[in-house]
Amino acid sequence: MPPIETILAVTLAGFALSATPGPSMLYVLSRSMGQSRYAGLASALGLSLGGVLLAVATALGLAAIFERYEWIVVTLRYAGSAYLIWLGAGMILNATKSSKVILKVHAVENLSFSSIVWQGVWVELLNPKTVLFFALFLPPFVSAGAGEASVQAQLLILGISRTADRYSVRYRDGIARAHRDQIH
């Protein structure tokens, strides 16, 4: 088992990462507002299951692949940056067009609990912020010294503890924001 200081450091870093809205938070928020609190719970559960799968993938070697083939990390960084620039440029170029368009709001399709959970799993597995956290941030917190748990076990414990703390944050924040927005 990793030392408690390590678990606390990863948890605090995870809370800081969770403070910045991303695809996961938007998914919980949209399901909570568009369907129900029950749907928000299902989406948070799906995201957590996706996090557990990422923790397992990290423990089984995703981090080792990124460490061995550093060009993959560099490529992901540049591709992600280029994608964000492309999105931003598109938003700027379309800003005047968008301001003249009448937007229509459509109801969110009501999905079953299991469908929402599976969507949540995929949202988390494809979330670059989360993938990079697991693959690049967690490995430096692992020690391979004598008497320590195996590297895989430490990565799994850190990854699952990170996922567990995010579940409550996502669900609570998603429900609170949805409730606040529905009142106003």
Name the structural class.
mainly alpha
Count of strand segments? 0
Question: Average pLDDT across residues?
Answer: 75
SSE pattern: HHHHHHH
Radius of gyration: 19 Å
Please work out how many helical segments DSSP would assign.
7
User: Per DSSP, what share of the residues sits in E-state strands of 2 or more residues?
Assistant: under 5%
- Main sheet characteristics: none
Distance between the termini: 46 Å
Helical fraction equals over 70%
Shape: globular
pLDDT < 50 runs, ≥5 residues: none
Report a brief summary of the structure.
By secondary structure, the chain is an all-alpha fold. Helices cover 79% and strands 0% of the residues. The protein has a domain at 22-68 and 125-183.
Question: Care to describe what's here?
Answer:
The chain is an all-alpha fold. It has a domain at 22-68 and 125-183. It is 79% helix and 0% strand. The chain is built from seven helices and no strands. The chain has helices spanning 4-18, 23-34, 37-68, 70-99, 113-125, 128-137, 151-183. Helix 3 (37-68) crosses helix 4. It is globular and about 60 Å long. The model has no long low-confidence stretch (mean pLDDT 75).
Helix and strand topology:
Blueprint: H1 4-18, H2 23-34, H3 37-68, H4 70-99, H5 113-125, H6 128-137, H7 151-183
Helix pairs in contact: 1-7, 2-3, 2-5, 2-7, 3-4, 3-5, 3-6, 3-7
